Amino acid sequence: MIIRVMTYNVHSCIGLSKKDSLPQINNLFEVYKPSIVGLNEVEKMSPRTLFVDQAKKLAQNWFPYYVFGPAIKIGPFGFFGNAILSKFPIIAWECIKLHSKIEFRACIKARIQLPGTELTVVVTHLGLNKEERVGQIETLAGLIRGERTPVILMGDFNAFTDELRPLEGLVRDLGVNSGPTFPADNPTARIDYILVSENIVDYSLEVINSDASDHLPVLATLEV
């Protein structure tokens, strides 16, 4: 079946105007109609984003299923982390901490039920330190190695393609010929990726222009 998959670091849903960008992101979902979305830098019940459950808010109009995986605690009961939004049932999932010394990082690994098949989706946000990313990428490789279902690995890797070599043979980079994704107002670096296993057919990938975050969203059309 054909699905559209998006990865987006939403920068706590604060756009380039420094204002709440939840409506803008919802509009992107309406226009581009992704089936599954991986989000980074999502906040839940954080005082700095007015205690909004951002993943729930972004899911409510378009996605019957969503999960939020915390990476960092903010305030007395707030969190900052990753999320998966899906039009299909999420039948199992876990939030996995990644080895971090400077700033805590995590990923979500989920099993999603598509009509007639299952799909493994991993959404991650890697660290700013290159040495830390080596171990974090090794952890990701271990999470998808041996998976029998089709695999999508996506997120903000804070890395250039040379650092992704440990993932070769497990997933392939769909955006080799696509444009940069960061910073959104003058993009020069491609650090947001959609990587897929060999049993997924890719039809297209595009970097979408938007000022709803400091990153640009990436959208892929796939056959699973």
UniProtKB/TrEMBL annotation:
Residue runs in coiled coils: none
SUPFAM superfamilies with a match to the protein in the record: DNase I-like (SSF56219)
Cited Gene3D superfamilies: Endonuclease/exonuclease/phosphatase
GO cellular component, one term: membrane
Start and end residues of each Endonuclease/exonuclease/phosphatase domain: 6-215
Molecular functions per Gene Ontology: endonuclease activity; exonuclease activity
GO process annotations (BP): GPI anchor biosynthetic process
Pfam families xrefs: Exo_endo_phos
Keywords: Endonuclease, Exonuclease, Hydrolase, Nuclease
Domain of life: Bacteria
Annotated protein name in UniProt: Endonuclease/exonuclease/phosphatase
The organism of origin for this protein: Thermincola potens (strain JR)
Source lineage: Bacteria, Bacillati, Bacillota, Clostridia, Eubacteriales
